[in-house]
């Protein structure tokens, strides 16, 4: 898996976000990690960093929780599909929900994979390598 420029974590659990950030930095999976507490904040960060003139903080990858206040992961994905970016980040759902309906629904909304919690770097690498292989990257 190539090293990513930026990963955006969208999760309302600050402990999960901190642990995932530490793991990402320890495994050197990304140069930068930014975070949002809900889908609405995540969309605002994407519009800020990935607009017409994308910055180095425009994420290559989004780790998205499903169950959050304000705007949940499903609502985020529905809005995200309507945004046009120069570089569109890939999305992996990272959630404690194991509801089959939830997992099927996010697949239909364009995510490239899903992981359970706690965060496992090997699973992230597996999903990204499969996606890169599928797209000949």
Summarize the biggest pleated sheet: 5 strands, parallel
Strand order, main sheet: write it out: 2-1-3-4-5
Return the average pLDDT rounded to an integer. 87
Strand portion: 15-25%
Q: Which sequence of SSEs, written as H and E, runs from N to C? A: EHEHEHEHEH
What's the quaternary structure here? single chain
The top level CATH class name: Alpha Beta
Distance between the termini: 10 Å
Summing up helix and strand content along with how strands pair, one would put the structural category as alpha/beta
Low-confidence stretches: none
- The CATH superfamily is known as Response regulator
Helix segment count? 5
**What is the count of β-strands?**
5
CATH architecture: 3-Layer(aba) Sandwich
Helix content: 40-55%
Radius of gyration: 14 Å
Examine the coordinates and then state which fold CATH places here, giving the name of the CATH topology.
Rossmann fold
Question: How many distinct domains?
Answer: 1
Instruction: Give the overall silhouette.
Output: globular
